[in-house]
Amino acid sequence: MSLRLGDIAPDFQADTTQGTIRFHEWMGDGWAILFSHPKDFTPVCTTELGYMAKLSSEFEKRNCKVLGLSVDPVENHLKWKVDIEETQNYPVNYPMIGDSTLAIAKLYDMLPADEPGTSEGRTAATNHTVRTVFVVGPDKKIKLHLTYPMTTGRNFNEILRVLDSMQLTAAHKVATPVNWENGDDVIIVPAVSDAEAKEKYPNGWKTVKPYLRIVAQPGN
Ligand code: BEZ
């Protein structure tokens, strides 16, 4: 059965470009992004991993570690990192897992479906990971799960946006509306009564409907 939001992210030990890590221990008490790409030395993946490297200081500011994964061996990741920095202008300073046995890919359901009509199991086309992203919270529970098509590079700004939203929710009991960006107004969650809201927001809020109460982003 596949992993669901709210499940504990399975712990594992892995060989990475920065040595052996145990996932939960490596996370410490912060957030983590575990993301897989299909193959080293491929064009879309090169742009994706370079962009993740560009954003890594933003994730660090948010106490969120980044961990890449593919079924390529660590030696290949180390060679490919040079190309990524050369072409995308940012060094890949987060660890990349070499999941050659597919153990973690299977644990996190990151593999595509087997091709119909093949009885011998996985083929060259199906034994690589699809573009998957997991965001894991400090409680080690899965907070976000995305799967993207092979030929579409992901929008990692969106992962940063969702992380900002989730961290605001954790700190202030607010939710964020459609297309929200950091700094925009937020929504007071229904679990917060008007009496509690009055204490939290003495300057008031806008009641569009009793269930839709808009307030300036706390701490902004
Ligand atoms: C790419 O990153 O460009 C790619 C990887 C695997 C299959 C197709 C494209």
Automatic annotation (TrEMBL):
It catalyses: a hydroperoxide + NADH + H(+) = an alcohol + NAD(+) + H2O. This is Alkyl hydroperoxide reductase C. GO terms for molecular function: NADH-dependent peroxiredoxin activity; thioredoxin peroxidase activity. One of its GO terms (cellular component) is cytosol. PROSITE patterns: THIOREDOXIN_2 (PS51352). One of its GO terms (biological process) is hydrogen peroxide catabolic process. PANTHER family: ALKYL HYDROPEROXIDE REDUCTASE C, THIOREDOXIN PEROXIDASE. Its EC number is 1.11.1.26. Belongs to the peroxiredoxin family. AhpC/Prx1 subfamily. Residues 3-168 form the Thioredoxin domain. Homodimer; disulfide-linked, upon oxidation. 5 homodimers assemble to form a ring-like decamer. Pfam families: 1-cysPrx_C (PF10417), AhpC-TSA (PF00578). Transmembrane segments: none annotated. Keywords: Antioxidant, Oxidoreductase, Peroxidase, Redox-active center. It comes from Larkinella rosea. The active site is at residue 45.
